[in-house]
Give the backbone structure.
Amino acid sequence: MQAQKSQTKSMGGYFQLHLANGREYYPDLIKLNTSRNALQYILEVKKYTKVYIPYFTCEVLLEPMVKLNIPYQFYHIDAQLEPIFDFEVGSTECVVYNNYFGLKQDAVKKLSDTVPHLIIDNAQAFFSEPVPKIDTFYSCRKFFGVPDGAYLQINSDERLSPENDVSTNRFSHLITSIDHSIEHGYADFIENELDFIGNEIKSMSSLTQAVLSNIDYQVCKNRRIENFTYLHEKLSSINELGMEFPTSTPAMLYPLLISKADVKAKLLEKKIFVPTYWPNVFRWTTQDTLEYKLAKNVIYLPMDHRYDLEDMAYMLAVLTKII
Ligand SMILES: Cc1ncc(COP(=O)(O)O)c(C=O)c1O
């Protein structure tokens, strides 16, 4: 037994990148390369014939339907960012709902009880636990410094057998930004994002899993809760976003709606980068829709585990000067 082991395992030589051998946050879920491929996995296993998907979501989520030639239909959301059901879900059809910014876990629970064939997109809600028996997927790089990776819960015993992904060539932006700056790594980040288009379903790479096993999730979660709570205390009175905000939430970002032009550009001048969710919504909808306004006017403030309350106070001071 010992002899056999020494034949397969190399010993000695140089050291690997040293990572602590910790625990992933969702060790028991299926580990894949991207969350769009997690959706494809669900569609392949469940053989749905039509997908209802929100107008307010990321365009890459259409990839699986295009690949598998499955028709899809967009639906609108209301001011609480919850689905407007002006359609009926057929017996072989499914509904994708996005747990927006990690703020909609109560809606996810409610919909889980009432909507048949529900698929929860938790790409923006890493810390929202999957509801038992509800197909749910996560995208790891939206929350942590990994180049790829997704988790999937699927309510089926059937399993696909994808080959292992390799992430070695996707780390450039993650490490360049340490030696240089976030700005230095930006072009590589964009290249990495484009590289995911059209990829087949693969299992999460060993390297991504190793990094994900090296994160102190409790610290990350607490920091997000603290930052989000602080921002909401300071900004709720001017926030025109009509939805209810949950308390104590390890959210993705803080969404702020204010009637003032050019705030995003002015924040950018001060090196506070706020994303647009999602540029495709401008093509999919018209200016009078809620989705268009969410994409155009909401400022998504960073508040993740990289920052503490001092950073939040600094960001608020910059913002206050602008508005
Ligand atoms: C809400 C949402 N879901 C899913 C995805 C796709 O994630 P991935 O790039 O891991 O496929 C994105 C964007 O990339 C997204 O914004």
About this structure: The CA atoms of residues 254 and 301 lie 5 Å apart.
